[in-house]
Amino acid sequence: MQFVFDGHNDVLLRLWTHAKDGSDPIAEFADGTTVGHIDAHRAREGGLSGGLCAIYIPSGDLVFADPDVEGRYITPMAAPLDPLPSLAIATEMAAIALRLDAASAWRLCRTVKDIRSAMADNIFAAVMHMEGCEAIGADLSALEVFYAAGLRSLGPVWSRHNVFGHGVPFAFPMSPDTAPGLTGAGFELVRECNRLGVLIDLAHITEKGFWDVAKTTDQPLVASHSNAHALTPVARNLTDRQLDAIRESRGLVGINYATAMLRADGRSDSDTPLGDMIRHIDYLVNRIGIDCVGLGSDFDGATIPEEIGDAAGNQKLIAALREVGYGEADLTKLARENWLRILAHAWREDAA
Ligand SMILES: [Zn+2]
To answer: Which residues belong to the signal peptide in this entry (predicted)?
Structure first.
């Protein structure tokens, strides 16, 4: 078994959504369920030892566009969100993360040392991530409060615009150069994350925003759940120029299992072979090196290949990689060690 530390999941969104309908988030995660992708049991079965768990504010107005006869689609951008309801929702999701920790349903990790110790104890190692910072105002005071609650990673924007910058739409085929980059407040956010030791995630940001972060941050460049634009030209994927910058910074790309970001036709379809995942991983490894590629499943946030199904099927990807020739040392890097190196760097821990 190659234990996996994964760069992106939306299990907090699922638990929060179900809690609105009366479900107990602690029981849903600890006791297991048949819905969604991650709980303690399925994670253990698939060797999913932990990952970045996103606080994400849903966009009620988002409606995914159907492809036209040529397979093209442009989903209209979700509208910007109001700050106060966003703060309320983010607080509720952070509280779920803290309650799961208090109940020992998972371990909320603030250091790589915490992650390794949770892995050794066979308990899910959760890292609090924020996917789009609508809950944080331009004065950044909420950032310090969320940091105190355990936040250790954030993407300034999701696929919508906010006070910090601009996101890319869900569109195929389309370049990620769709809108401006960081705002003045966005540059401040990046500098403050550098000061605190919070990882900055470049998934969902426009190409201009990517370069704005690149010239400002002192961290390696990281896209937690994105794939190669050369193979699947959705606006969410990374161009070769972006990939080269990630390589030069010794950063990381987490492979997204979302089928719309893996398939050559950009469609969302669970009937997608693991071969499409291997194609993207091979491409990234060839372009940026084995040290700069990891996993970023998007479990509980995307349509993933049915062969994997959920967290319990995670080792099927590892097995498929083994079959095409990846050795155990390289698989260890892909599965967890690259992520742990990046986090140790962003969090300024001694080499873990
Ligand atoms: Zn995402």
So the answer is: none
